[in-house]
């Protein structure tokens, strides 16, 4: 029988199918969605459009990443932190930040470790020479993860060093993000693969049924050499970060060199990402080393992502703000936090803590600036001081509380970074380093944002900004 004369389904059958779809999807949403607004929204879509709503929910509403992570963790949980838990450098703290240290220990299952030397490096000009030198000196292993790894002059320098290390027998593993380092074509990925360097693209697929993964990005920046020296922070690998080249769109940033027992936790985080992407287990002394003391810093790695580490960086920041007595200083390229962080910052300011938020005068993503302008007024009302940094665009992600505790790494202060991206930060208990970072942020308080600046926007600009704010979870 030709398709154009097939009899339509009886109305009762269609109604029954719609009812079953709505009930089935609604039950799944009720049992799995923690966010009430999200749950109500998905149920509403499925009630209004049962067939299309079900398809959309199956594609975009189910966190398959977390399910995959739980499956992988079940086979590795005993192995993952065994070495760090038994380290002779584990530390416990007393005093103001003791509750924070205890909470983050339970939250992350990672101990605080002492005996570390943590050096602050600024821009590609300050960081790249140290990173390239470490790769040159590698004898056993190199683990590299970068959100953006461009196939340009700077990227070419890194690839040349990585290929040379591979040729001399060093075990090299490179992980790049499936979006940040090129979705349709990744020059870095193909160049390294062609040269025989093991390279993987994190959650990359052009298949329609895997489209949800477009929204989940590995934003971490990690380099570990021989399990002895590590680098992490906000710095990508690209010409734009090398200010000496005077690029068209320069990006200033802050990165950190790590030496000491904390490097093991950094190696473990990178090894987990590699396993998540490739199912290859990295093990042995070539990747994980026991360390002697290299400094006085006490530190811990904190990872976050839409897997088993959901919102852990945000929880760490919230607890630190709660314990603040004198000041909280934040520096971030994009400032679009959710209601919890906004409320905590406002409450800190209301109880007399000096709260400074330092953001670029203009970022490299205008819609983020528009949304920020529409979202920031409640903080100004509470007495939070918002400062804007003059160009070049500063991509640093720094937080210091009471010039004693610091949190640095890859995580921006926006909902995407705090909920959707895979991020890595480092919490540091070191008064000297906290003072250095605090002074750095103080020097970048160029222009203060006021209510007058927001009020003088014309009506159309305010509408544009308010509309951009609706996209906060995905910007």
TrEMBL record:
Keywords: Cell membrane, Lipid biosynthesis, Lipid metabolism, Membrane, Phospholipid biosynthesis, Phospholipid metabolism, Repeat, Secreted, Transferase, Transmembrane, Transmembrane helix. SMART domains: PLDc. Residues 214-241, 390-417 form the PLD phosphodiesterase domain. One of its GO terms (molecular function) is cardiolipin synthase activity. GO terms for biological process: cardiolipin biosynthetic process. It is a multi-pass membrane protein. Its main location: membrane. Pfam families: PLDc_2, PLDc_N. It is an enzyme of class 2 (transferase). Gene3D superfamilies: Endonuclease Chain A (3.30.870.10). It is found in: Cell membrane; Secreted. The chain crosses the membrane at residues 12-32, 39-60. Its EC number is 2.7.8.-. GO terms for cellular component: extracellular region; plasma membrane. Signal peptide: none annotated. Could be a virulence factor. This is Cardiolipin synthase. It comes from Acetobacter indonesiensis.
């Amino acid at each position: 029988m030709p398709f154009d004369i097939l009899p339509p389904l009886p109305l009762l059958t269609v109604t029954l199918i719609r009812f079953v779809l709505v009930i089935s999807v609604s039950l799944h949403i009720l049992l799995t969605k923690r966010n009430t607004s999200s749950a109500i929204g998905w149920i509403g879509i499925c009630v209004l459009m049962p067939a299309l709503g079900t398809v959309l929910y199956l594609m975009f509403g189910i966190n398959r990443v977390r399910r995959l992570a739980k499956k992988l963790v079940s086979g590795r949980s005993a192995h993952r932190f065994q070495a760090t838990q038994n380290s002779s450098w584990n530390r416990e703290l007393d005093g103001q930040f003791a509750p924070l240290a205890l909470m983050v220990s339970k939250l992350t299952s990672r101990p605080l470790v002492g005996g570390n030397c943590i050096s602050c490096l600024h821009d590609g000009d300050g960081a790249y020479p140290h990173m390239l030198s470490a790769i040159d000196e590698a004898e056993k292993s190199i683990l590299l993860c970068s959100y953006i790894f461009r196939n340009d002059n700077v990227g070419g320098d890194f690839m040349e060093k990585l290929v040379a290390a591979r040729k001399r027998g060093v075990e090299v593993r490179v992980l790049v993000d499936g979006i940040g380092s090129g979705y349709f074509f990744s020059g870095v990925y193909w160049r390294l693969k062609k040269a025989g360097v093991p390279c993987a693209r994190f959650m990359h697929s052009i298949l329609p049924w895997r489209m949800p993964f477009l929204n989940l990005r590995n934003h971490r920046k990690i380099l570990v050499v021989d399990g002895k020296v590590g680098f992490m922070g906000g710095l990508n690998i690209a010409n734009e970060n090398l200010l000496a080249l005077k690029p068209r769109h320069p990006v200033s940033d802050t990165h950190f060199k790590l030496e000491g027992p904390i490097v093991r936790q950094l190696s473990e985080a990178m090894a987990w990402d590699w396993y998540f992407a490739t199912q290859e287990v990295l093990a042995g002394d070539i990747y994980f080393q026991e360390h002697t003391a290299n400094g006085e810093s006490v530190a811990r790695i904190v990872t976050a992502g839409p897997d088993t580490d959901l919102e852990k960086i945000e929880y760490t920041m919230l607890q630190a703000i709660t314990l603040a007595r004198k000041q909280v200083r934040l520096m971030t390229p994009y400032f679009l936090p959710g209601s919890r962080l906004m409320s905590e910052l406002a409450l800190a300011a209301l109880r007399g803590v000096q709260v400074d938020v330092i953001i670029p005068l203009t970022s490299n993503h205008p819609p983020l600036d528009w949304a920020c302008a529409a979202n920031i007024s409640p903080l100004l009302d509470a007495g939070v001081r918002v400062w804007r940094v003059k160009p070049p665009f500063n991509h640093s992600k720094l937080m210091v509380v009471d010039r004693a505790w610091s949190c640095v790494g890859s995580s921006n202060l926006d909902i995407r970074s705090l909920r959707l991206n895979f991020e890595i930060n480092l919490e540091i208990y070191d008064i000297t380093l906290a003072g250095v970072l605090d002074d750095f942020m103080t020097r970048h308080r160029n222009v203060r944002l006021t209510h007058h600046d927001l009020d003088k926007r014309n009506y159309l600009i305010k509408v544009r900004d308010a509309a951009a704010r609706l996209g906060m979870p995905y910007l």
